[in-house]
Amino acid sequence: MWHVIYYETAEGRCPVRDFIDSRRKMRDQAKILAQIEALEERGPTLPRPYADILEDGIHELRVKLSGEQVRILYFFCFKDFIVLTNAFSKTTSRVPRAALDEAKRCRKDFLERVTEKDLQEAVK
């Protein structure tokens, strides 16, 4: 089993939680959370169309809501952790460069502030 971590800024803001909370329909929130749970269970073996690798170790969780494509970007770290960095509604055929760059910034910030020991203690 993998451990899913929601990235938080140094100020305590959590982009993925904020995105999920912004969904008006509880059904949409539930579907996103179910996909995150599937990612937690399957990790890197979660297949397309549910997940895909983008570039430089950044992956996307793909959630199809009624009329909307949602993407949650994430990376793997410290053997069994998945860090969800940012989320957005996809409106073009490609993942926007700004979203990928944001995921990389989040990863850099996270790895500078959090150690494997911190995470191991948090999940005990």
User: Can you summarize the main beta sheet?
Assistant: 5 strands, mixed
Along the chain, the helix and strand elements come as: EHHEEEEHH
Instruction: Name the structural class.
Output: alpha+beta
Portion in strands: 25-35%
What does this 3D model show about the protein?
By secondary structure, the protein is of the alpha+beta class. It has one domain (3-122). It contains four helices and five strands; from the N terminus they run βααββββαα. It has helices at residues 15-22, 26-42, 97-113, 116-122, and strands spanning 3-6, 51-55, 58-65, 68-77, 81-90. A five-stranded mixed beta sheet has the order 1-5-4-3-2. The chain is globular, with a radius of gyration of 14 Å. It starts with a strand and ends with a helix.
Supply database-style keywords.
single chain; 124 residues; alpha+beta; 5-stranded mixed sheet; 5 strands; 40% helix
In short:
This protein has 124 residues and is an alpha+beta fold. It has helices at 15-22, 26-42, 97-113, 116-122, and strands at 3-6, 51-55, 58-65, 68-77, 81-90.
Chain-wise SSE layout:
Elements: E1 3-6, H1 15-22, H2 26-42, E2 51-55, E3 58-65, E4 68-77, E5 81-90, H3 97-113, H4 116-122
Parallel strand pairs: 1-5
Antiparallel strand pairs: 2-3, 3-4, 4-5
